[in-house]
Amino acid sequence: MTHRTISRRALITSSAASVGLAALGASTTAWSQAKGAARKIILGQSVPLTGVASEIGIAFAGGAKLYMDSFNGRKNNPGYTFELRQVDDGYSPAKASENAKKLLADGADLLFGFVGTASSDAVAAIAQKEGAIFFAPFAASDTLRDAAHASVFHVRPSMFDEAFKMVRHCATLGQSRIAVVAEDDAMGRAGLDAVQKALADQKLPPLVGSAFVPVNSDKVDAAVAAIAKLQPQAIIQASLFNSTAAFIRKLRKTGYGGAFLNFSVVGIDPLFTALGKEIGGVVVSQVVPSPKSSATPIVKEYLAAIDTSDQTPSYESLEGFIAAKTLAEAVRRAGKGADRATMQRTMASMTDFDIGGFRINLRPGLRDSIRAIDLVTITPDGKVVR
Fold first, then answer.
1. Quick one: DSSP state of residue 356?
2. What is the pLDDT of residues 17-44, one digit of tens each?
3. Is Signal there in the keyword field (predicted)?
4. In sequence order, what are the residues at sequence separation of 6 or more whose Cβ sits closer than 8 angstroms to the Cβ of residue 242?
C-alpha cells in the first residue's frame, strides 16, 4: 500500500486561488443567474488541511477537486462550471463554523464535504439558519439524518449502518463479548452510540464496556488498562488513525489476541502508515468501492483522472470524487435554471442512483439497505482482503 497523496501545499495554493476568484453575489441569488449566461456554481468546502486529521482531509478534498477539475475541463460543458472553494479548518469545529459563514457570505451556493462529526453538526445548524444546502458531510452524526435536517444530503452511509455490519460480523464469528474504544469527541461518542444501537437492534448482548481516548493521540494507556481487564473477544474502535494504531499496538503487547474492527473514518491509508506490518488482521469498514477495483465504472473513471494528477488512489480520495460527481449529477437533473428549492427537491428524489456500479441514496433513514458496506481485512504487507 504505497502512500502518496496530493501535496498539502498544492491543494492549499489551488484552493486559495479559487477563493480569490470573483464571487457571483449573495448565496441567496446565485442559483438563478440571467438566462443565457454561463453559470459558475460555487461550492464552499472546509476541511482539515492541517492538524490531527489532515491526511484524511487532504485526500477527501483532493478527490473532490479531481472530479471538479475534470468536469470543468470538458470541451462540451452543459452551460455551467463549478468553482470549488476549499479552506482549512484544522479539524476545529469552531473554525469550520467560521469558514461556513464566510463561504456563504462570499457567495457559495451550497456547503460541501465538511470533515468531522462536530464540524458537520455545527455547520448543519448554520446551513439550516441560512437556508443553505449542506451536501456530503464526511463522518456526520446520525442525528443529521432526521427529518429536521431536510437540507443535509449524505453520500456516505450512517454510522449505524457501519456499526450494524461490524456487529453482525462479530455475531457470525461467535464473538459476543464486544467492547468499544472511542475518541473523546463528537465522532467517538456517535460511534459508541451507533454500536450500542446496533447491538440492541440485533438483540445481542450489550457491550462489556467502553473507554475513551484523546483525539488522534498516542496517550491511550488508561484505555488499554481498562479494556484489558474486560477481556473482550472483539473491540470496535471509533477513532482516527493515530489513536487507533497506538491502542492496537499497546493492547497487543499485553497479550491480547482478539479482533479489532474500525469505522471507515479511521483512514485506512494513514492507519497503515502508522501501524506498518502490525496492521495485519485489523478489520476496517469501507463505504465506497476499493480504489483498485478498476472493473467498477466509477473507479475506472477515478483512476483515469488520477493518472493526470499527483495523487495516489485511496478510499478517502475516491469518496471525495464520488461525492463531487453525485453533486454534479444533482445539478444536471435540476436543470440549468434551477433555484435552491428545485435543487433541494431534486436531491431528495435521488434515492437509488447508479453512479457507475455504485448506488447512491441521498435520503436514507438510519438503515440503508441499498448501499453495500464492505468489511475489509488488511494483511501485514498492506493488501486489502475482503
1. S
2. 344 333 333 334 455 453 445 689 999 9
3. yes
4. 52, 216, 217, 218, 274
